[in-house]
Amino acid sequence: MFKVLLFGSGALGSVFAWRLQESGKAEVTAVCRSNYEAVSRDGFRITSQMYGDHVYQPSRVVRSVEEAVDDGTSYDFVVVCTKALPNLGDNSGLITSAVTPQTTILLIQNGIGIEEPFLTRYPDNAVVSVVAYIDVSQPEDGVIEHGSNAVLAMGPPSPRLEELAQAWRDGGVVCSVAENIQALRWLKLAWNASFNTVAVASGGNDSRRMLDDPECRLLVQRLMSEVYRLGEAVTGATLPVMRGIDGPEALIADTDRPGVVVVPSMLMDFLAKRPLEHAVILGNPIAIARELGVDVPCMQAVYAIVKMVEKQYLPSRL
Fold this sequence. Notes:
- By secondary structure, this protein is an alpha/beta fold.
- Helices cover 42% and strands 20% of the residues.
- The chain contains twelve helices and ten strands.
């Protein structure tokens, strides 16, 4: 039975923790901060098109990492599902009290370069990069609305990681262990660096509004093309094909299906006036592009706009 600590018990983290615990192979302690009162009292009240409706009660609900270890529990895995916001500080130290020499750290976060702070702080621990595809939100504390998608890809591979992946599969998650995890991370960035960022830069628009406007649609496509070109320069190979999607045009077509309206996570953060993940979704890739001499003018322009938009409501934190 794996002992798992979930750090970042929001919408995404709660669903993946639920499915891991449902496998019968893991006990999950959830660190809940802003939603502690609701979750400790009522559990996570989940409405899921994929798994059905359920009230998920983690094995233990705590307010902090320190509380999670105050009973002497040693964790096999620490799963980090917080937003990656290096421009606001290095949060890798927040899990230190739960990391032992045997602990594997999983990072289920968006963006590029998210692993570096953890690799630096925990050089003797396995740090696993995880790419997630899931449509989920938390409209109020402890209330989770989940659609019909729950996919994880993680790496680099190890026998222990394969055991964890099998537990997630037993819980109904589509989960793979991949050698080319960084290529898969760049592949996901193609969507995040375009739809997520343009949703904010355009003033607050969902995928349907963006794609219905010809100029905005073209901007999304150009951003995707820049990410593909940069990702292939970094990895030295063509980015993987996933679900038949082999490039920007196919990725846009997949999002442009009839009846599909996506509200990007960065748009939700913008509307709630929360910090945005622009540093790992645009800033870090742009810095890499400069080092490699890859021209990414659309990424640079949108990055400048998104940062200025955020400064309008978070001036004291930037």
